[in-house]
Write a structure and sequence with these properties.
Layout (H helix, E strand, L loop, with lengths): L4 E6 L7 H14 L4 E6 L1 H8 L6 H15 L6 E5 L5 H10 L4 H5 L2 H9 L8 H4 L1 H10 L5 E4 L4 H18 L7 E4 L27 H9 L20 H9 L2 H13 L4 H27 L2 H29 L7
Parallel strand pairs: 1-2, 2-3, 4-5
Helix pairs in contact: 3-13, 4-8, 4-14, 8-9, 10-13, 11-13
Length: 331
């Protein structure tokens, strides 16, 4: 029995950080053993916010590929490809845009939020409004059975399901309605306590040096009530403790939590434990990053081979779509 297919992507809108590692890459590695996985670099999606400056796009794409491999993705088991190298995505996006109601796009949860939050860029573009249609094309063109998402992301997948149902209602059961593959995505705090995001500049990057990681953790905020070493605190108010929940053992978590509440441990000592555990996770990734960065031709081959395989799968779907829509010629 053939494996069911999983589709997911990541934007090359900046260097990847530890939030991308625990929120996406580590989960992708787990899924590659159970599913037929298609993982793509969403460079067209990156243009929805980075359209005015693409100078670093190639470097960011390379960073995504290197980190995917360094995290443990096996190109012999999964298909790693670049979105813009499979032009069928654009064709299906165009066709789906013809039948997607405007109101569906305007009610997408993140649409108005980003318009309000992003003040340094003009987001009032067709590309940004139509982002969910392109995202739907990305998923539907591979007839993906599952899309890995967190519970809070299910509404974002629902518009793809709605577009799929609308298409099939008009043209027959051509496209496969994808199911959410619910995954526990831990919230990864940045160095300033907010969600780790390239937008906020509060990231610990996978390309950082050990010294940079140590410096960033040492300067992280903790419970503001702990002004002096002898002050007692609440570990749940400390972003450092939230990172402990991800990277430290249960015993270490209990140790630093109790030490924080009783002032039995200082913030510096608490951070030292986190630094040790972060480096333990990152060191093998750094070694693999160095290995792959020294083989640019191999990276190009992996991306080229993956894109060719993806194009073959996408072309099969587009043949069905064109036929269903009577766009396949006169015969």
């Amino acid at each position: 029995m053939s494996k069911q297919r999983v589709l997911s992507g990541i934007q090359p809108s900046g260097k990847l950080h530890i939030g991308n590692l625990v929120g996406a890459l580590q989960n992708w590695v787990r899924l590659q053993e159970q599913y037929e996985c298609y993982y793509f670099i969403a460079d067209w999606h990156a243009l929805t916010s980075q359209y005015a400056d693409t100078a670093q796009l190639r470097e960011y794409i390379k960073d995504v590929v290197v980190n995917c491999l360094a995290a443990g993705l096996d190109p012999e088991k999964v298909t790693i490809f670049q979105q813009s190298h499979v032009l069928e995505h654009a064709e299906l996006h165009l066709l789906l845009s013809m039948m997607t109601p405007l109101g569906w796009l305007e009610r997408v949860p993140t649409y108005k939020e980003k318009l309000e939050q992003v003040s340094d860029k003009d987001m009032h573009t067709y590309g940004f409004l139509g982002y969910p249609v392109l995202q739907s094309a990305d998923i539907l063109i591979y007839r993906a059975n599952h899309v890995p998402v967190g519970v809070d992301q299910v509404p974002h997948l629902e518009i793809t399901r709605e577009i799929c149902r609308r298409f099939n209602n008009f043209y027959g059961d051509v496209l496969i309605e994808p199911e959410a593959l619910l995954t526990a995505f831990p919230k990864v705090p940045g160095t300033d306590g907010r969600k780790m995001s390239k937008t906020y500049g509060n990231c610990i990057y996978l390309s950082d040096t050990p010294k940079e990681v140590e410096q960033k953790v040492r300067t992280m905020m903790t419970d503001p009530a702990r002004v002096k070493r002898t002050d007692k605190g609440d570990p749940e108010l400390s972003p450092v403790y939230q990172l402990h929940k991800i990277f430290s053992s249960k015993e270490e978590q209990a140790q630093v939590a109790e030490g924080c509440r009783t002032a039995g441990i200082g913030c510096i000592d608490c951070k030292k434990i986190l630094i040790k555990n972060l480096l333990t996770v990152l060191e093998p990734i750094w070694e693999k990053r160095k290995f792959f960065l020294e083989k640019p031709d191999d990276l190009e081959d992996i991306l080229s081979t993956g894109s060719q395989k993806a194009k073959h799968a996408a072309s099969e779907t587009m043949e069905l779509v064109r036929k269903a829509m009577n766009l396949d010629g006169l015969k």
